[in-house]
Design brief:
Elements lengths: L1 H13 L6 E3 L2 E3 L14 H6 L11 H4 L3 H4 L4 H4 L6 E2 L5 E4 L6 E10 L4 E8 L9 E9 L2 E4 L8 E3 L3 E2 L5 E9 L2 E10 L1
Antiparallel strand pairs: 1-2, 3-5, 4-5, 5-6, 6-9, 6-10, 7-8, 7-11, 11-12
Length: 190
């Protein structure tokens, strides 16, 4: 609880001085803090995926936040995205390691009401919003991991959430072209 209060205090302090990210020799303008939006995808792929699982969620996480009610849920479906913010206002650039192109940004999201974290990626380069590029957006907290229950063709993707009010959580993303990893990084941890 104390750690979350420090995060909120640090975020409030930093609002007047936003973080500027540098990548591939230049400044990247920060993105506006966008709300989570419903995602669409191929239900056949979702059903067949063990790691990514089906879209999940129930209002019980918002009504009674705890690990049992919140872990693995969709923050939009359960209402936790309503008060969410990007931790430290930090947007970590995602760079294609094969050519230096900036693909987009990775963020760690947090809901004070639910005590949950999730990772969000926003692809700003339209060339990468394509089934050719597989994106795994996920959040880790201790030994737990929650993946993006969806795949591609959407500019904004986010993982399922983890209840982590007193555990350090980290935003992560792995982007592959076929079987070749072109970007893999851990962004903000808090």
């Amino acid at each position: 609880m104390v750690r979350r209060l420090l995060v909120v205090a640090a975020a409030a302090f930093m609002v007047s001085a936003p973080i500027v990210a540098y990548a591939a020799g230049g400044n990247l303008p920060p993105l506006p803090s966008l709300p989570e939006t419903p995602q669409t995808d191929d239900p056949t792929v979702i059903v067949l995926s063990v790691e990514h699982g089906p879209g999940m969620g129930s209002a019980s996480c918002f009504q009674n936040p705890n690990a049992g009610n919140c872990n693995g849920t969709n923050p939009t479906d359960v209402g936790c995205s309503a008060d969410a913010y990007t931790v430290f206002n930090a947007q970590t650039p995602i760079v294609d390691q094969t050519n230096g192109a900036v693909i987009g940004y990775l963020e760690l999201r947090y809901s004070p009401h639910c005590g949950t974290n999730w990772a969000r990626t926003t692809f700003t380069n339209p060339a990468y919003i394509n089934p050719l590029y597989q994106r795994d957006t996920y959040v880790t907290a201790g030994t737990l991991r929650a993946d993006d229950p969806f795949f591609n063709d959407e500019p904004v993707r986010y993982s399922a959430e983890l209840y982590a009010p007193s555990t350090t959580a980290c935003a992560n993303v792995k982007v592959t072209e076929g079987i070749i990893a072109i970007a893999q990084l851990t962004g903000t941890c808090a």
